[in-house]
Amino acid sequence: MLYLLDTANLANIEKAFDLYPMDGVTTNPTIIAKENIDFIEHILKIRSIIGQDAMIHVQVLGSTAVEMIEEANNLLDKIGGNLYIKIPVTSQGIKAMKHLHNAGVKITATAVFTALQALVAAKAGADFVAPYVNRSDNISSDGVGMVGEIVDLLKAYNFTTKVLAASFMNVQQVHASMKVGSHAVTLNLDTFENSIRHPLTDSSVDQFVKDWEDIYGKDKTTF
Ligand code: E4P
Question: Which residue windows are coiled coil (predicted)?
């Protein structure tokens, strides 16, 4: 199971990679635009924080396969390390996936809203497919149901493509996506931290410290 951080915010990436067992970072054009920075320079800063082995998923913007392939090649030249090219599941995107997959490029099919889109992307060579959970829920569809269906169909047809569930608004969506077998999730730092916080954990720790200090004072277990 993989945890990725869905942000280009350097402070959040530094904090998450320092504290937590993160596997990589995903960005999209909106996430990059929020930071309002030099694109490649910024991605290289992310790379230097997370190291060469952690995944970075970076999205192309072109509307034709030719443009997407050109952008992908530029990103591959400039970024390096464990890089996945994010390509939307449009017709041109699927053409670009076929080409790039044949050239040995790692691909994440993004903006997935149906299981059939995910299957075609898998057949075109995508390594990950990214179903958008919250955006589906927001149109009264069933985001987690879609994730589960994709997991089942990829397995039924023996694809090695993994599901990278994305677009989360809350912890419940993340939890439910994991329960239906998503191989990976990408989420922002707040949602990740909300998923591990519990008031009873905090009060238990406070009580342990108080009980210990009542007998041993400020000495810790290292004495
Ligand atoms: C994933 O790859 C997308 O960048 C992202 O999760 C979309 O999330 P949003 O719906 O919160 O914008």
Answer: none
